[in-house]
Design brief:
Number of strands: 4
Structural class: mainly alpha
GO molecular function: branched-chain amino acid transmembrane transporter activity
Largest sheet: 2 strands, antiparallel
Shape: globular
Main location: membrane
Oligomer: single chain
Distance between the termini: 24 Å
Subcellular location: Cell membrane
Membrane topology: Multi-pass membrane protein
Strand order of the largest sheet: 1-4
Protein name: Branched-chain amino acid ABC transporter permease
Strand content: under 5%
Length: about 350
């Protein structure tokens, strides 16, 4: 009986258990079990059917969260993946948005892609100081870039339109005008899905492991054979590319680009997404964006419930909520919502057993 029980348990584990890996291909798979693959296909089908199930306002909020998660994922790769700090993430969003604003309408998909390329090229240059400095000094260098970008957005009128900004026509794909959030959702999916799947695969590859080594100890990583120049510059470039694509999509959603969309507070907001969600994971980017971006929507709902006379005070409480969330997770759960979810998942995996 023992031999039969052991054989059945081993067969079940090989077929369904996530912990069993026999090849590197299985270890890098997005879904390594039949149930996991089924859940993945159901999830993708749900994404395609989502516009037909929700209202325009609900789709608008989902678009905000998805684009925010895409931008946050870029910062996750930089901060959580390679251990490099940045306070200029909003500037890269602005670069992508302004670049995309010059290729709007029928060229909107090309404009979004070009916005990511331009932001990635600037991110490659911004990553050069990381070869000599790190920590708070690197944060100051990226903060200086944020202020420089803010000045350029307000005064480079030939490219940005100055304080008034730029307006965009509705994006078009194959002659179809994406005028409503339900229709724009498919343009966002066109960029978001490949970039999310690429980031998940990247973290388990040789380049992702090199980033992790640089994050833990860059001198030890260099001794072990990691090319610090390539690792740090590629992290900055890819992070900026993600932010640039997100900025281009944000411009299509807002149909306008102004400097007030990309101040320093937005960079801090994305840093809050990294801390709250859990640095260095794709799921952390989604959870962090979901929590941080839904706070203003909840406050807007409270304003509607209590009256417009409370709008100023509730707007101030939004900053208090951001600061409180960051402190709460730093003290109680440094790994963010991903760490919290991991503990809950591990508990129910062994429940009702005590081990």
């Amino acid at each position: 009986m023992y031999a039969l029980s052991k054989a059945l348990t081993d067969a079940f584990s090989r077929r369904f258990a996530r912990a069993v890996r026999e090849t590197y291909r299985e270890d890098e798979a997005y879904a390594s079990t039949p149930l996991g693959r089924l859940a993945l296909w159901v999830f993708l089908l749900l994404l395609l059917l989502l516009p037909g199930l929700l209202s325009s306002y609900a789709m608008y909020v989902i678009l905000l969260v998805t684009i925010g998660a895409l931008a946050a994922l870029g910062l996750h790769l930089l901060v959580g993946g390679a251990g490099q700090i940045s306070l200029g993430h909003a500037a890269f969003l602005g670069l992508g948005a302004y670049t995309a604003s010059h290729l709007a309408g029928p060229l909107a998909p090309l404009g979004v892609l070009l916005g990511g390329v331009v932001a990635g090229a600037v991110g490659l240059v911004l990553g050069l100081p990381s070869l000599r400095i790190k920590g708070v000094y690197l944060a100051i260098a990226t903060l200086a870039f944020q202020f420089l970008a803010d000045y350029a957005f307000k005064n480079w009128e030939a490219f940005t339109g100055g304080i008034r900004g730029r307006t965009l026509p509705p994006p078009q794909v194959l002659g179809l005008e994406l005028d409503r959030p339900q229709e724009l959702w498919y343009l966002v999916l066109l960029f978001a899905l490949p970039l999310f799947f690429y980031a998940k695969r990247l973290l388990s590859t040789r380049a992702g492991r090199a980033w992790s080594a640089v994050r833990d100890n860059d001198l030890s990583a260099q001794v072990a054979g990691v090319d610090l120049v390539r690792a740090k510059l590629s992290a900055f470039m890819l992070s900026a590319f993600y932010a640039g694509v997100a900025g281009g999509l944000l411009a299509q959603l807002y149909r306008a680009v102004t400097p007030e969309y990309f101040p320093l507070t937005v960079s801090i907001q994305y840093l809050a997404m990294v801390i709250v969600g859990g640095a260095g994971t794709v799921l952390g980017a989604v959870l962090g964006a979901l929590v941080v971006l839904l706070i203003p929507e909840l406050l807007n709902a409270l304003v509607g419930a209590f009256g417009p006379q409370y709008a100023a005070s509730l707007a101030a409480w939004r900053n208090v909520a951001f600061g409180g969330l960051i402190l709460l997770f730093l003290v109680l759960e440094p790994r963010g919502l991903v760490g919290l979810w991991g503990r809950v998942r591990d508990y129910f995996r062994t429940w009702p057993l005590p081990y």
